[in-house]
Amino acid sequence: MNNRIMLSHNNSVKIVGGINGSCFSARKTHNNAYLLKKMEISVAEAEKRTGKNAVNMQETYTVYLIETRPVDAASEGTNPALDSLWRRYSEFELLRNYLLVTYPFAVVPPLPEKRAEFVWHKLSADNMDPDFVERRRVGLENFLLRVASHPVLSSDKIFYLFLTEENGWKETVFETGFQAKADSRLKALNATFRVKNPDKRFAEMKHYGDELQSVISQLLRVRARAADRLYGVYKVHGNYGRVFSEWSAIEKEMGDGLQSAGHHMDAYAASVDDILEEEEHYADQLKEYLFYADALRYMCRKHELTQYELEMAVQDLTSKKQQQEELATGTIRTFSLKGMTSKLFGQETPEQREAKLKMLETQIEEGEEQVKERNAECDEFVKSAWVDIERFKEQKDHDLRESLISYAIMQISMCKKGIQVWNNAKECFNKM
Amino acid sequence: MSAGTPRALASSGQKPIQDIRHPLSAEESALSRSPDVLHPGGAGERDLILPNGTPVDTSSPTSSSSLLNRLQLDDDLDGETRDLFVTVEDPKKHVSTMETYITYRVCTKTTRTEFDLPEYSLRRRYQDFDWLRNKLEESQPTHLIPPLPEKFVMKGVVDRFSEEFVETRRKALDKFLKRVADHPVLSFNEHFNAFLSAKDLNKRQGLALLTKMGESVKYVTGGYKVRARPVEFAAMGDYLDLFTQKLGTIDRIAQRIIKEQSEFLMELREYGPVYSSWSSFEEDLHDPLEGVSGCVSNCSSALEELTEDMSEDFLPVLREYVLYIESMKNVLKKRDQVQAEYETKLEAVVFREDKKTSVPADVEKCQDRVECFNADLKADWDRWENNKRQDFRQLLTGMSDKNIQYYEKCLAAWESLIPLLQDKQEAKGETN
User: Fold this and answer.
1) Which residues are in the PX domain (chain A) (predicted)?
2) Could you report the predicted ipTM of this complex, rounded to two decimals?
3) How much is the CA Rg of chain B, to the nearest whole Å?
4) Which of B400, B409, B422 to mutate to test the interface with A (most CBs of A within 10 A)?
5) CB pairs under 8 A between A and B
6) Interface check B33 vs A, CB under 8 A
7) Do A208 and A118 belong together in one domain?
8) What is residue A232's predicted lDDT score, i.e. its pLDDT?
9) pTM for this model (two decimals)
10) A255-329 helix and A350-430 helix, angle to the nearest 10 degrees
11) Domain-located, residue A62
């Protein structure tokens, strides 16, 4: 089941494919398609593999086929062979973590969920379930397309290699040393710290992320419950089919009408499967933004960290400067243990003071450098982050609007089917 | 229809039975002419009409004035114009020191000479209907008496004075009277006459006794060994058993659907508002999300209407038929008894064949009774089958209509949302 992405004349990207060939996701308008301009990308298939894992135990996992093809060649009329390679979910995770660390100011597109959540009874929570795998395949392709159309992320070398170099990619990623950075960042982020002057815009953004996450979670939860109920309503109508059939057997003139009406009731009951499958696509679209909300919050947190580190550097510099002043003037304004001990155990020698002053001077120089660096870092972060946030906002508004439209269209289709079935049944009843 | 020539019965009204063409002695083809034609012989009408001339309509109240407006002066079953119209309307609560109860207005319009006046309007309560039915069963034991809605309601469970309950009951009482008025024999019954015209029903003397006896006992001679039923009556019995089963199943299915729909409705009522709360912290998406919330709310109301309608209109009719069938089975049993008495007495006479006496008068009388009973029952059975077909056709097309209306309401809501969702997008596209 191939998913093909096509670039149409106005540079909008349409994703065709998915189950039953129906249009999966909303049209994404990317004015700057970046990598996508040069390369067709798709996650075409999924396969089960077995192998030995890190602790030499047998395991079963799924791999996904990534296919790429240069766009120029296609437009020339020739059809070059596709390049393809297999990747598993954990490699996608690795790629994403790398991107998170390397581009802290970016709202990094999310991966499809690791485990099935918000399931209703008919949906399987099993990761190996073919329906789950299929929806994950679609989600992974979506992830790649999002990254490939991101103004900054799309030109990342590691990302390019992910799409083109099957072997040795993992090693290459680790060689970048991002892991170490990741670990220290993670530790810092998890620690509790308070920023003295929080940036209002980022605080608002974080709050928005919180609210978005909360509301979409709730929406998905209730929708899943409603799906369960709707399933029940439709399926019970199937029982009418059976009883009408039995009843028609004991009737004379009424028999035919009843029997055929029964068939329509069966058709009605069966129709709910397709309806709910389509709705699942809608749920997936919402889920993407649920995870995007998380990415947003994460980014705001990183900004906080950056600011905090700047504030720490400033604080450190200020205290060193004060120490210098005290030493120079001989007044003690700040409490320092060294100062106390020297008072208790006698004044230090002028040589010692000289040495200390010199040390402080170097430290202050370093400190000023650090503050300058961190300031620049902060500014850079804020600038880049805000660009990406604006881009994200526009994308989100567009995508969610499209999702709502397709949801409305789904509902319309369901209503029309319902009208048709009941009209058919009514015709049969009229013939009774 | 076969059997010998039915003999005139005392209770058959002014004309002897020979002079009245049997309702269904007309050809079969008349029935197949148009599915909406109720009576053979009569001119076909486009609308579904009860023999009384009132159009079949479960929703609107049948007031006597609207009744007249829809009067169809066609040849009726007996070649006479229909001359008796009854309706039950306008339920009102009466509060006295002893009790609280509901009365219904019973309106009669007639040209029959058995009635002193051409029009009557008086108030009756359920007790009075119950009295009438018992009297009919007592005095016309060979006929199928239509059922009344259930007598007893659990005081804590059902609100006897709620609008829905009272309306459901009114419809059933109306149907009961119409069925009686429609019957060529029952409609001429003196008790029916009294019910429609007498200010005061002198029912007190028999009431206590009757309620103790339950089913009428007068005609049951009792104690005679029942022989095998003639084939045609055995077939009726078998059919009734099977049909009751099917009705029970349909009742259960309908109840289950209502339950599932109610639970789905509960989820919808939670689902819609989530979109509303989401819209409260969105800018561009505010209107679309509010729109979706409104849509879901409209669908919820439509669904609520559907489940209410099904509860009020569909289930009671099913239950009514189950009661009808119960009373029919009892009539069959009575018939068996009458036949048993005859056969037993006949055997006793035949035994004394040597005596050479003519068949004693009482045995002849028994034979008459058997033959009349059989004839009446067969006629009533055929009429019942016809009515049953009408009733269920109406019931099931009604069910279809309600579902169609539900989907049409939802469709309208979602379709009106689409332009709202797309509108801004086009405007936005231009500014891009």
Assistant:
1) 42-169
2) 0.84
3) 28
4) B400
5) 141
6) no
7) no
8) 95
9) 0.78
10) 170
11) yes
